[in-house]
Amino acid sequence: MSELDPVTEVDPLGPEQHWANLMLMIVYLAAVGALFSIAAWQDWGWAFALGLVLTAVWVVGFMVSKDRPDARWFRW
Amino acid sequence: MSDQVSTGDQVSTGGEGHTELVRAIRWQDAFWIASGVPALLIFSVGYIAVLTGPVSVLIWVVSVFVGLAMAFVYAEMAGMFPEKSGGPPVFGAQAWKRYFKPIAPLNIWGYWFAWTPVIAIGGLLMGGYIQREWFPGQTWSLDWAPTSDFGLHINFAYVVGAAIILALLWLNHFGIKESAIVQLVLGVCSLVPLGLLIIVPIFQGKIDFGNFTPFEVPGASGWGTFELVAAGLFVAAWSAYAFETSVVYTAEFRNPQRDTTRAIFSSGGLCIFFYTLGPFVLLGVVGVEKIQEDPATALVPLAESVFGTSGQFLIGLLLVALLLSINTAILGSSRTLYQASKDGWTLRFLQRTTRRGVPLKAMSFDIAFNLVLMLLGNPIYILAASTIGYMIFNSLNLMAGYLLRKDAPNATRPYRAPLIMIRLGVVLAAGNFVLLFVGAPSWGWKYVGLGWLIVVAGVAIYYYRSWSDRRREAQAPLMVARAK
Prior knowledge:
The structure holds 2 protein chains of 2 kinds.
Chain A: H1 23-42, H2 45-63
Chain B: H1 2-9, H2 27-33, H3 41-52, H4 55-80, H5 88-96, H6 103-115, H7 117-134, E1 141-147, E2 150-155, H8 156-172, H9 176-204, H10 223-240, H11 256-286, H12 288-293, H13 299-307, H14 311-342, H15 360-373, H16 379-407, H17 419-439, H18 445-483
Antiparallel strand pairs in B: 1-2
Helix pairs in contact in B: 2-9, 2-11, 3-10, 4-10, 4-11, 4-16, 4-17, 5-6, 5-16, 6-14, 6-16, 6-18, 7-8, 7-14, 7-16, 8-14, 8-15, 9-11, 9-14, 10-16, 10-17, 11-13, 14-15, 16-17, 16-18
């Protein structure tokens, strides 16, 4: 490509399609975030520990999934 | 300059006027544009040393290596979208829009709000240094303070900082190639002395290992230590991860498939040198007690120890380094706004470019926002608020990298990161998520709230843009009929 080429966009992922709905996962993460915030506010050690466990559960839930996109998130 | 104008002449105009960038730079240019990142160390190294003591050295090492691990994911994503400018959040948005759309603008706006305050913070610091060194009598201030700890201030430092920022805006309107040359000159002028500042004391034998003992966070124990280390990692990330900005210019690379990976890994190498050795030498030579006296200018006692008490030279060094960082931020964050606008995530007018392919509207919006932000003063708290955006972005974007590999495995990837790095990216996303909520509060709840407010505003702007686009589409046939 040369300096004279204007940039033209092509979406390498193809036409926009809904692959899966991860809203539930975002709600889960928001709840864990709220738990961490309360732990920091009140200095609750148990809440920090619980938050870390729930975060680890998310990592496992996110990564251990089937190949089908709609099978992701707590449905593995 | 003439070639730039002719380049601009090739740009299609379309219905929105000029809206295209031009492929004018190589990876070396992006490396120099991103060379302002090592100088971001200056912004917070003193504060983190005060907060976490000797442990701060380890915090910086961990932070920059986490940044390097994340770069594998971002390099793969950048290669997938060679036509897109704006950096990793723009690539991540391409994935998120297929899962849960509001996350895409949250990701982009978080990134933009992470980068753009570098302009305000750098401007205020530069104005402050210039006032203290050359205009100590200029102590006037116009203040409006509704509460004891919140107010708007216009003073000499603000005016000088604003003038510098506006001058940089003018410099950058010539084109990306010219901006890269400016960055090269500033980079050499600031990074060489900054590098010497780090290397020379090691050979002079000035490192006092007693400054690292006891190796613990001062005054903390149990979960308190966890919180303070998280607070240190939280703010360190804002600087140490930031070399990802080198892939913001993907759409302006002459050979994006080759240049993106070279740009991000070369910038990462530079940052590993500065971020691992810099804090170590600072603490080893100066010690926490001395840094505590004024964490904002923590490098000054180090420089005095290395170069003697040549105050003018030190201030000159700091000013050039700050100028470099500000310009890195102006160039990067304006591209993010430009591409976000083009992709329909934010206000439409921000996608306009000049005949030279410069996103001047986005750049001007950036500057205007920062002139307002500068009124708040207090750089470290602006930094903490903006890190909220950065950690939201890093968490979401690493997830996007994993999702793209999983759901678009056959998409063209000029660079394919090792699978273990993609998986590690998810673990790091979780780590950044924890830092976002555990580390931020130590810098003040008020600034946590401000950070979230500004980032979430990006989602509201996205819904406004969607509504505006729908209305425009609905009105289009009516306008054509009227024209007939």
